[in-house]
Amino acid sequence: MKKRRNKFLDIRVQFFFICMAGFIGVALLAALAAWGLEHLGVNVPMFVWLLIFTLLLGSATAAGFSIAFFAPISRLSRAMKEVAGGNFRVHVETKSVFRDIRDSFDSFNLMVSELNATETLQTDFISNVSHEFKTPISAIEGYASLLQEHQQSPEEQAEYIDKILFNTRRLSALAGNILLLSKLDSQSIHPQRSRFRLDEQVRQCILALERKWTEKDVDFDVDLDSVDFTGYEGLLQHVWMNLIDNAVKFGPRGGLIRMRLIEEDGSVLFTIDNEGKSIPDEDKSRIFNKFYQGDSSHESEGNGLGLALVRKIVAIHGGEVWVEDPVNGGCRFAVRLPVEK
Length: 341
Hints:
about 350 residues; alpha+beta; Helix Hairpins; Heat Shock Protein 90; 3 domains; five-stranded mixed β-sheet; two-stranded antiparallel sheet; disordered N terminus
């Protein structure tokens, strides 16, 4: 909760009281000077003293305001010009007695910090996108060049074609994920909320990935409560598809995948476990970042966008997603979503 700002600290109120104090001070000093000289036999009109002390106090007040008010504003203006020129590492400090000026400096530093973070993310994003596109494109180019030589056996040609198709699908998935993330970040996508069976949607996603898990001879242990859920059906499908696909991809051949869907306390909890390697603690807080991959060699299929999509879509529904280590080993992803009654 924001603290209520003290209106007596407002710079306009302070300026008003300073001016009033100046007027009263001028009047008192003029009256005191006239009274003192009158007792000495010197008769000087009151307006002359008013004029003299007005000039003196006005000059002192102007000098004070120049140091306390205009000098920080001038420094802030120069810092803004540096930011406009692309320097997002500017940091300014002030010890001004005016609360408004200190707040302005704090807001400026916060703005520059956010701009710097945004620029870093943008640079990293471009670098990562370039790398993720370059890898499959290079593979496609290499296998296509080999096919042009017409020196391979039919079996080798079929293998090269499979490799080309694999990397083509990888490029397509990457482009689709980038586009969807971009739309979600810019809020340019406006899906309609609907009521549907969440457990049935999870089962449909399992069937949609049948080719992948049958190739690895993966078995399933599925126990899903019947849950009527109101949300963005099309977006949530990406969540289950990504989590199930990862469980298959990073689990062992012939392994077991366990899935649970439990409705409890006004929310629904989905968990999916595989028998693969657990995720190191230092990676658990970063695996939901864009393009982050625990496998830095990029030997496994993927582009580091699936879990970023999962977190974004879950957050849109007001839920949370996390990763943990099951008691019996392996890796577990959990999603909790609020349920509207």
